[in-house]
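$ run holo --ligand "6-O-phosphono-alpha-D-glucopyranose" --emit tokens
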Amino acid sequence: MCGIVAYIGPKNAYPILIKGLKRLEYRGYDSAGVALLNGSLQILKKEGKVSDLENFVAGKSTEGTVGIGHTRWATHGEPCDRNAHPHLSNSGNLAIIHNGIIENYAALKTELELRGYTFESDTDTEVLLNLIEDIQKEEKISTEEAVRVALNEVVGAYAIVVIEKSKPDTLIAARKGSPLVIGIGKGEFFVASDASPIIEYTKNVVYLNDEEFVVLHRDGNIEIKTLGNIQKTPYIQKLEMDLEKIEKGGYDYFMLKEIYEQPQVIRDCMRGRMNAEKGWIKLGGISEFANRINNAKRIIITACGTSWHSGLIAEYLIEELARIPVEVEYASEFRYRNPIVNEKDVVIAISQSGETADTLSAIQIAKDRQALIYGICNVIGSSIARASHAGSYTHAGPEIGVASTKAFSAQVTILTLLALQLAQSNGSISQSRLRQILYELEAIPSKVEGALKTNDKIVEIAKKYKDAKNFLYLGRGLNFPVALEGALKLKEISYIHAEGYPAAEMKHGPIALIDENMPVVFIATNQSAHEKIVSNIQEVKARKGKVIAIVLEGDTVIRGLADEVIEVPETDELLSPLVSIVPLQLLSYHIALMRGCNVDQPRNLAKSVTVE
Ligand code: G6P
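-- output --
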């Protein structure tokens, strides 16, 4: 939800800002802009992607060794040049970039207007900047002090960076609820929404905490204070990210690269956490709280989007294996409905980015009510990881494609291990069954490789169905969440309307939609429901629907019925989502590509949703 990047040091800022913005584009791509200090305060901004900004800037002067840059996901005000960041204060002395939402901006704006301020944009950000300027002028205080006072007056979430025309040797940044990382180089500083714009210059970073602000000086001095004006000592950490992991590595799109990374991601996710031969599992995060989790009255899983789908899979797994009751809640609903949660509950929060505002707020509510919070995040050091009492990282590496793929597989892998570890420690699984599943888990990466081999077949299927207006995805049991995830992938990147349903529910409504123009994707890899799925396929065929079926290798029954069959390797039924999701990801990828859509940056979406 908006990406921000800033630089101060001896180099020209512009190329660093542009490169950084490209890495942060997954966070939003409605407009992009930079502000550079070079005697004057120069602002260059444009509606569209970072490449549109580059074209606009070509040929113009881009001097300046201090600068700020922004890529926007619109909240207040339509995407257009005028609403693009950076914004300038009324005096022209201050410029700001902002990721987040200032909720009380309307009241602040009215007050400022009464005092003679005018606004060029419809954004909440411009209001915040003029509030800072007004405080600075009225109270005759330094800009950093004015930033601190202003931030104490606003309600909402923000990561901001402010530069001042008359002070080219200083950058001021602050955060609350939106992420901010400071890179500490030799005689230079970087600020960004995540570490990806920083990694090629320095591995030394400081993660700013909520309600802290930092003043970075060109002479290398760094001052961190809380909004309550308490001095903090910077805690410098070493980044573990590799540059090559955030590049396309020969693939045309990040999404395709990330789909193909899944076998390795699953291996990395399991490494050191299990051993089939010895029959052990050890998720470091659980051990300390194993008793509390096993004695939990129930487990509540909360998440959004794709992460919510992996939560649904976990519900099946934990109830089946560990026999602990599980409820899965959309974080956005959970947080607003006064949920009954107490110290006997365990809340598992799942989030790739670890920054999703709704999930973070849901955690806060559960924490206030004394529940134990177990975070499952991909981004190390993210807000949700830090707000949790315990947790496990998925170790999927940076996921750049906006539509989540490898992060989903890593989440399902971790959740499977978690269910197995709980089952083992509360004695609800026999050692032989545990070993059997662990052996199957060890074989999953090679089975996912097998599923990736369906790619050519899927290209052919995509050609036939790319112009469909609607799709239905149906599955039973563990394949129901897979159907939801398959439908989500298709609508996210190809803009085709798609719905996921439990196959048995088809007869209660969706069946009315079926005619010769309706492709229905059946995820039919669960042997236990095979006959029932076959009946559902027949019901669709009887109404002239087109059936695309994901089946186990050698399934002659469904091959005889379906229009298209995609065969994937067999595994233990409990692990089948890890294999059957792969062709669905590929199907949506190829259809989107054939329809001319930008698969990595689908319209209107952002990867990290830090607004409510
Ligand atoms: C956004 C993304 C989705 C993602 C969801 C939850 O909507 O576009 O791909 O699944 O947020 O994100 P999280 O980072 O919390 O998993």
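-- notes --
The two ends are 11 Å apart (CA to CA).
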